[in-house]
Amino acid sequence: MTGETLAELIQLKKTGRELSDRQISWWIEGVTNGSIPDYQTTAMLMAIYFKGMSPRETAWLTHCISTSGDVIDLSSLKGIKCDKHSSGGVADTVSIPLIAIAASCGAVMPKMSGRGLGHTGGTIDKLEAIPGFNVNLTKAQFTEIVNRWGGAIMAQTSDVAPADKKLYALRDVTATIDSIPLIASSIMGKKLASGADVIVLDVKWGSGAFMSSTSEAIDLARTMVEIGEDNGKRTIAYVTDMNEPLGDAVGNALEILEAVQVLRGGGPPKLREVILTLCDEILIQSGLAQSPQEARAHALRAIADGSALRRLADIVSAQDGDPSFIDHPELLPQAAVERTVHARWSGFVSRIDARGIGEAAMHLGAGRQTKEDAIDLSVGLVLDIKTGDTVSAGQKIASIFARNDEDARVCEQEILASINVSPTAVPPWQTVVARITRKDGVVTYEHP
Ligand code: URA
Ligand code: CA
Question: Whose CA is nearest to atom 7 of ligand 1?
């Protein structure tokens, strides 16, 4: 660039000035090709964390991230391609059942997913609990499976948005994850590169999410909707609760079993509500339903008549997995030790801290503290309670699946420390807090 150094750009951002498109392009090119040292990029990330970015800067940063590697061309797929993305949570077993239900209703869901990090889980890790399941598809295999079955899930390749990989790894170790422009450009940079026509976002708020208030989550959701719509993608965001774990199961094989329960018509009501709400949106955006009521009727029929569960089996088989686990859960990885947790107190459950529960599962080996950690697909925990429930001392409130007794004992303490019981009634968290859309340039906020 014309005589400017990154130190000068950091100085501009540090004093709250707006970076030009050219300056942002130069920085992200340097991040991607390795010519800018990590210590300068981390200083820039911290300056952005404190000073923020204008909508223009955020939009251009997203563009630079999305074009830092391959942009996937899905034009060989028939129909309206829908993508779904969650900003990350605990017991967030949404994508797998959602794709099976939506695909069995006729939607087209080519999904690229990531792995878990810290207290949050990742769809790719969960799928690897299924014996034989191949998450590394070629583009030809991916296209063929989506054209045949309406859905496939593969690991994001390192060729998509490589700038995000580098930035995310640096953010993870420098406490700069929870910044609206950095999260929005990271998520939307990948979504714009992965070629869908419709993007449905599930933005979490609460103790287990990056956004700790509804207003911040709504801000993040609006930012991502604007970026998507500016780039010609129909983009709809939901803000949902992540103060307590969404489902009951936390851990990879355990979450696969919970996905099957949902597809059999059961599963935790709160998890079902998020899955069905996002499914309604996908069916409407795909032109497969005219109203949320009609969409919901389709989805419930696909669950009731078994077609959604059969579709999961078909996609699993197409991706080299063995679908026998659906009827034989013992074929999934099994933990050596099972321990039951009992309530110590009687009263109303006033808090089940999602982050604490996610970290308890991570310490068992279900998640990664750092990107390089190996995980154990068999371990995790299953909760029997939700906020607002009544409990009595001695009642079973959770099961722990661990590698050994010592891990299980530590996990029990962590679970108990994450749960509060109060003598007075506590209302449950509202699951779906807001829906954010933009039409003809006007952003609309609906609160269901
Ligand atoms: N998920 C992402 O992909 N990026 C972020 O920055 C946060 C959550
Ligand atoms: Ca997730």
Answer: 183
